[in-house]
Amino acid sequence: MLTYFLRRLLLTAAVLFATSIIAFLLVHLTADPASTMAGEGASASDLEVIRETYGFNRPLYVQYTAWLLDLLQGDFGRSYYLRRDVSEILAERIPVTVTLGVSALCFSIVVSLTLGVCAALRPNSIIDRFALWLAVAGQALPSFLVAIGLMYVFGVYMRLLPISGVSDWTGYILPVVALGYYSTPSLMRLTRAGMLEALQSDHVRTARAYGLSPWRVTIRHALRHAILPVVSVAAVELGFMLGGSIIVESVFSLKGLGYLAWESIQRADIQVIQSILLLVAASYAVLTLCADLLNAALDPRVRH
Amino acid sequence: MNAQLWVRINRRVLLIMNNPKGCREHAAGVVRGLATAGIVTALATSLPFEAYAGEDNDTLVWSTASEIGSLDTYYANMRETLILTYAMCDSLIYRDPETGNYEGLLATDWKWIDDTTLELTIRSGVTFHDGNELTPDDVAYTLNHISDPETPSQVSFLSNWIDRVEVTGPQTVKVHAKAPTPAALEYLGGATPIFQAGHYDDAPKLGDGNSDFGAVQPVCTGPYEVDDFVPGETVTLKKYDGYFADSPKGQPQIGTIQFRTIRDPEAQIAELVTGGIDWIWGVPSENAEILSQQPGISVASAPTMRMSFLSLDAAGRSGDTPVTDVRVRQAIAYAIDRDAIVDNLAGEGAVVLKSMCVPDQAGCTTDVKQYDYDPDKARALLAEAGYDDGLNLPFYAYRDRPYSEAVMNYMREVGISTDLQFLKWGALRPTLSGGEAEVAHLTNGSNGILDATASLGYYFGGGEMDYARNEELSGWLSEAGRTTDPNARATLYEKAASKIADEAYFVPLFLYGRTYAYTSDLNFPATGDELAHFYRASWN
Lengths: 304, 540
Fold this sequence. Notes:
The structure holds two protein chains of two kinds.
Chain A: H1 2-30, H2 33-38, H3 44-54, H4 60-72, H5 86-121, H6 126-140, H7 143-157, H8 173-199, H9 202-209, H10 214-243, H11 246-251, H12 257-266, H13 270-298
Helix pairs in contact in A: 1-13, 5-6, 5-8, 5-10, 6-8, 7-8, 8-10, 9-10, 12-13
Chain B: H1 2-18, H2 25-45, E1 59-64, H3 79-88, E2 93-95, E3 102-104, E4 107-114, E5 117-122, H4 136-147, E6 162-169, E7 172-177, H5 184-188, E8 224-230, E9 234-239, E10 256-261, H6 265-273, E11 279-281, H7 285-292, E12 297-312, H8 326-335, H9 338-346, E13 351-352, H10 375-384, E14 391-397, H11 401-413, E15 416-422, H12 425-433, E16 439-444, H13 456-460, H14 471-482, H15 486-503, E17 506-519, E18 522-523, E19 538-539
Parallel strand pairs in B: 1-10, 1-11, 14-15, 14-16
Antiparallel strand pairs in B: 2-3, 4-5, 5-7, 6-7, 8-9, 9-10, 11-17, 12-16, 12-17, 13-17, 18-19
Helix pairs in contact in B: 1-2, 8-10, 14-15
């Protein structure tokens, strides 16, 4: 097991190393950061001074090595645009995206389970039709349209909730609904299908025969059985939500990681882009490593 | 009221759920619990949330899509920073945005001692926001810092004419120019704030030991002082009570001015309508019309200094290209209906650009050859040049893609097909400076400089962006840049502008407009310099 663990660990480190090189090259080869920083009207000598000051005139391998060495010491560098340490910026932005993503997933699961269970309990009823309509609408409507619609109804028309920013927790409500709504259809249809199957199973029929309360039969016996595939899909959805929250963050002016990545690409803020790319890659690599190790622990054949 | 509405809605939900035709009994029990939780949530969320903007709080909140990373305009060349600089800081000279006249601000008087020496008398009794009094040393320190060739300023064009600045008396400084600089007053006005001596001494260090000057928060002498700054999010300024009385900028009227970044234009409009913010700009024409009909919202438009134009490789820097033929360049100019683009696409405030400079710029003339829309003439010129069957050109662009596509469509109509290369500015700039762009749709705001040297001089003075490479033309412009006699300058610029138009070196398209939308409680002066002079604003 130890050998397997070390092998996987080395592989993960190699993946991260390769990712860091690709991220570095992509950022440096697609745009001239000095030109972006200098803006219009800058002369060639202005660009040279900027390159000299920020070290852009050094060979790429020198820049990469310096960046990697700093990174290994926990120094993510400094944002040329926001004039702050990247680690500080990330520490502020990551919680926003994580809060948004996790809350959206919770919202999605609650709505999906509720409607999915109701739809399964009463197939072809109004609730079932409503759930189907919601599923179709959820998959057909782009998230920015849902976001703007929510903004109009609850922010402009009813004036119940903040439209942009997160000065307090109420600022998360509309973004969470907008983001969570997108993954609701798949989870809901999965719940419904699972519940339909579970409700017809022998153990649920037996539970009813025992005279257990409807709540207990539904939640403890049927739903428990039906929820397993939902959990698997929900985990995947969380990944999409964390990575794909940029549109919702942009519409509601949430200062999250996706928004930061987009803005940093626009202004060629190299240190920030590299750090975000590496952070995302590291998250996936570590999660994959954990999954591999878990599989290996559960199934000895995987180790060989 | 809103809470009651929510309660009614949730009661309705409960009634539906209780209906036997709805769910089975036990399912309704599950949903009932959730609906109750919904009521609680609704009650909690419908509590009134605090409004930060508006006359009641004496707080003007303005918003754009940009994130502000630095408050130092020398190291953050963007409009928003410049707008804040005008509110926070003072320069030596003030150009009144409505009359265009130069007035003394931190300098009370100035005179040219000789062709290259400008002597200024510094105003006494002016204090910085930390209470220290302004001295000539501060002026010399600031100007010497930004004119240092090793300083990575993003607006070096404002200071690279300065050789050195010396303090010559208790209230006087001398600015020594490298060469006669007729636009010196323009450079010293507005966008050149004065900081205290030693301002940059404690700038944080970058990884390789260089200083990050832009990270130092400005302490200035302007009508507003910085109260709070969260990079990338908000900037809050509050009225400076010690602002000197006889400033030509006037006295600040509004207590607090706050900037907020709101990326999405729809969110900006929604915040404006609901009173979350007071002022936005860049409102598309279709939204401007709707907003103007909203009670409590005012909409105003004004032209800006940003030119939209086509750069054509007349000199053949990119190789053997059809646009080296003047007939092809003229054909392109005739092919584009600039009036239609202005009327139907560019929006309120935009006007047709008649010359390769902004009419308000000193030395600019619009009395040059015009190429009115004439597709037949364009086709004839192309045929004369040997392109009866049409031709294909690469077409570089980086901003406002719909405008570029409109121009490409007009070119296609007369037989010029284009391959659009739409790049970010950081990627396009090396292409342009390297002489690789046969046709490029560009824009330029002259960095707010009201002198033709910032437009004609920049594109035709022999620099890296010069695609005409005409020595006679660049000679005239070079001479105009050194000549202090206004009449002689005007003559030189007139010859240059006429030559550019006759040869169709570039094709001027239009001047951008800006549409502003703001609360009707605000008395806001919309000016043509694309700067929001909030220090001149007041509540009605």
